[in-house]
Design goal:
The protein is α/β, with parallel strands linked by helices. 44% of the residues lie in helices and 12% in strands. It is built from 14 helices and nine strands. The strands form two sheets. Strands 2-3-4-5-6-7 form a six-stranded parallel β-sheet. A three-stranded parallel β-sheet has the order 8-1-9. Helix 1 packs across helix 2. The longest helix has 19 residues, at 31-49. The relative contact order is 0.17. The structure holds S-adenosyl-L-homocysteine. S-adenosyl-L-homocysteine binds at residues 71-72, 109, 111-112, 140, 142, 162-163, 165, 204, 233, 235-236, 238, 275, 310-311.
Length: 355
């Protein structure tokens, strides 16, 4: 077997590793390998996106959910979750505030909440589309029939985020109730791509039972899907879930995997996630230096922020959108990057030719 650095070179050149090579690379990483990887990751990040960090305004519009994922704080069995949903006017107000702050992408994320029927969702999407023709609309509403995705696309949505969570069916079953499957989750992602959405997938790092073989499968699936975005963040336990006592994912492994994603698919949109900022005060900055190029601050009203508690100690639950934006701007400038006002579409070439 080649050495870790040679495998990173191979990944850069061919964009693929075998399952055994992925496992070896992940299990034999060290500080030296990580530094080598991050230098390459930043080279590609700069090549396609310069020093620009894109920002998406996240609107967490409902925490009602019919699903019961074992890791998630808003699972239906959590009787202690205080439920809320934003109405159409409140969602549009979030967009208005966000637009004023320079956001050109709105991400509507929520639990799988039946109150938001197809008609209601289409109405909200088309209102945002008409009110903000220069903005991208991203949805993150879980698994839906292809027909529903299609109609939401026609109503004006451009992008969809649906993490596959883990590519391995047995591991998937250990994180979710029986009625959910990795196969169906993946099918939804193929449907979304086929319809024409800019599609984001991803997974939690260090979810209970995750092995390097599972991570190898995640990379192989992502390479095959070729999504536009991949969101990864550490698993963080939530006190009111079956996984309350499980260990969380680490900063070190999450950063390494961000670097690998950037080198495997160099044009990817890669968020430095809130979960990463939650387990380390400078997690998001470190994520950017490992190859990430997107941040997704919260635009939800502060009155509901704390209630969208997917995991414990989530950061930024007390700040107004404007404060969040200013804080992130400062953080990003402190490491030599710049927060940009742009839709931040996939594969922008900032200074192509430099490589
Ligand atoms: N209902 C939507 C949105 C899910 S919330 C959907 O099904 O896609 C967004 C992401 O938060 C999830 O995909 C999951 O990967 C992540 N998440 C949930 N619980 C978490 C936890 N305890 N720690 C870290 N990330 C978590």
């Amino acid at each position: 077997m080649e050495q870790p650095k040679q495998l990173i070179d191979k990944l850069e050149e061919t964009s693929r590793l075998t399952k055994e090579e992925w496992i070896f690379l992940i299990e034999n990483r060290g500080t030296d390998t990580a530094d080598y990887l991050f230098a390459k990751a930043r080279k590609w990040q700069h090549h396609y996106y310069g020093k620009q960090i894109y920002t998406r305004g996240l609107i967490e519009f409902t925490n009602y959910c019919k699903n019961d994922c074992y890791y998630c704080g808003i699972r239906r069995s959590n009787r202690n979750a205080e439920r809320y949903r934003l109405n159409r006017e409140q969602i549009l107000e979030c967009c208005q505030i966000g637009y004023g702050l320079g956001f050109r992408t709105f991400v509507l994320q929520g639990g799988e909440d039946g109150w938001f029927t197809q008609e209601r969702l289409e109405g909200i999407v088309s209102d945002i589309r008409n009110g903000y023709p220069d903005c991208a609309i991203t949805l993150s509403l879980g698994e839906r029939p292809k027909e529903s995705y299609q109609r939401l696309f026609e109503a004006g949505a451009d992008r969809y985020l649906l993490r596959h969570e883990t590519a391995d069916e047995v591991h998937y079953k250990s994180l979710h109730p029986l009625e959910l499957s990795a196969a169906h989750r993946k099918q939804c992602l193929w449907d979304l791509k086929e319809i024409g959405y800019q599609t984001g997938t991803g997974f939690m790092v260090g979810s209970p039972g995750q092995t390097s073989a599972h991570l190898a499968e995640d990379f192989i699936f992502i390479r095959e899907l070729e999504p536009h975005m991949v969101g990864i963040g550490p698993f963080v336990p939530h006190h009111d879930t079956p996984f309350a006592a499980e260990a969380g994912g680490t900063l070190e492994l999450t950063l390494f995997l961000i670097g690998l994603l950037r080198v495997m698919l160099p044009k990817l949109l890669l968020p430095a996630t809130t979960a990463l900022g939650t387990i380390d005060p400078e997690g998001r900055e470190k994520g950017i230096l490992a190859g990430a190029n997107v941040v997704m601050p919260n635009l939800s009203p502060t009155s509901v922020r704390r209630k969208y508690e997917l995991y414990d100690n989530k950061i930024c639950t007390g700040d107004e959108a404007a404060e969040c934006r200013a804080c992130l701007s400062r953080r990003i400038e402190s490491i030599g990057y710049e927060l940009t006002v742009s839709r931040g579409d996939y594969g922008l070439t900032a200074d192509a030719g430099e490589i």
